[in-house]
Amino acid sequence: LDVDGGCLLRLGHHSGAESVTIEGHRSILIRGKKKYYSDKATTFWLAAEDRNKYDKSKILPFGWCLLGEVKVEQEKEWQKIEEAISSISYPQPQLETALEGEEHIKIERTIEEWTSAYVKWNPGNQEVIATYEGKKATARGKDIVREAMRKKLVDKRETVRTKVLVEKIYNRYTIVKIDEAE
């Protein structure tokens, strides 16, 4: 690999356990039929242009980048990409003003009613989780659950099917109100 005045830098999730741990203090979880810890990794992540057809001499390890001066050809190519991206028009969401006055922040915010959501209690995170049509909403603590449903949901850890009112801010859903179980 010709670095041409640049330097190689190792970063990211697949840079390897040895690169993100301290020698002599490593405890790498090895997953398989039997889980165990080791001071050496057992996997090496490689990247190819095509998943099925690739030349073994052209595959590169994940987690490396080349840090160096940008070449003129690369800069021209990046400018074309930036121009193409900036020319794309996206539909504007319905926005609500959060602060009054000259300067203000606009927040995309809606309320939805999930008519037949599945609600469960997660004791580890101490949160209520509602799922409906592939969407998930959460609320911290069990105070949002009425006493009648709390025994079933929290004490017995059963999943309950009920109507849930949720607030959507951008792509995050938060539980506002939970009705009694169906």
Verbal overview:
The chain is mainly beta. It is built from two helices and 13 strands. The chain has a five-stranded mixed barrel. The chain has a two-stranded antiparallel ribbon with strand order 1-6. Strands 2-3 form a two-stranded antiparallel ribbon. The mean pLDDT is 80.
Summarize the structure.
The protein has helices at residues 72-86, 147-155; strands spanning 7-10, 28-30, 36-38, 46-47, 60-61, 64-67, 96-97, 106-107, 109-122, 127-132, 135-140, 160-169, 172-181. It is mostly beta strands and 182 residues long.
Detail the poorly predicted runs: none
Determine the number of helices (DSSP H or I, runs of at least 4 residues): 2
How would you state the average pLDDT, rounded? 80
Radius of gyration: 26 Å
Beta-strand segment tally: 13
Shape: extended
Distance between the termini: 64 Å
Secondary-structure element pattern, one letter each: EEEEEEHEEEEEHEE
User: Level of helix content?
Assistant: 10-25%
What is the structural class? mainly beta
